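Worked problem 6 (solution included).
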Amino acid sequence: MAGHSKWSQIKRKKGANDQARGAVFTKMAREITVSVRDGGGGDIEGNFRLRTAVTRAKQAGVPNDNIDRAIQKGLGGGADDSNFETIVYEGYGPGGVAVMIQALTDNRNRTAGDVRSYFNKCDGNLGETGSVNWMFQRKGVIRLDAVEDFDSFFLEVADAGAEDVREDGDEVEILTSPEDFEAVMKSLGNQELHSSEISYVPLNTVSVGEHDVAKKLFKLLDLLEEHDDVQHVWSNFELEESLMAQFS
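Solution. The predicted structure is:
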């Protein structure tokens, strides 16, 4: 499985301390607020972008009170009137791995400068718009626990619009077009999900088999994910089996 999903599994296994959870809560709240402002209001049922953001926040353990405050802020009920905008950065990490970053920022210069410095520190290179996005395709990605009757499950979600369903150990990954993402989500009912988002899925992967390269790559991904303005990080690496135990 490629880096866009394998890295998230590694991160989950590592766990998170209170400080890291607090940073995740802040990012999720910001995404909810922007979803209200730009996605069509505070009605969760009528604003798909907001509904997706709230679902991701709940999956991350964000308390309902935090979610409600973020929605109210988006409606103009908060003191912070910062004008956040969505920006996508592209670049190459160690070993020629393609990396895409989605940020919500109120200061383009600050965020771009920080992202560029992270690439430089880790032997990577921040590229121009379009430099790596041709290596990815936009897909809805949903992950949940493995199911008992995979064949029946496959047919059910395929009828709802799923393009592919994959088993990976104790997890199932569903891929959809962005247009069918909502319908497939609804077909899952109240099943508990590991994650669900519109993602950049790599068309091809870059194998990483050298320890030093993997160490620098994971350092870069950590720096990016820990930045306050960064909401999502996607990459196209495939970690060789010989290194999995060292980084999981």
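Discussion: The chain has three domains: 17-77, 85-134+204-247, 135-202.
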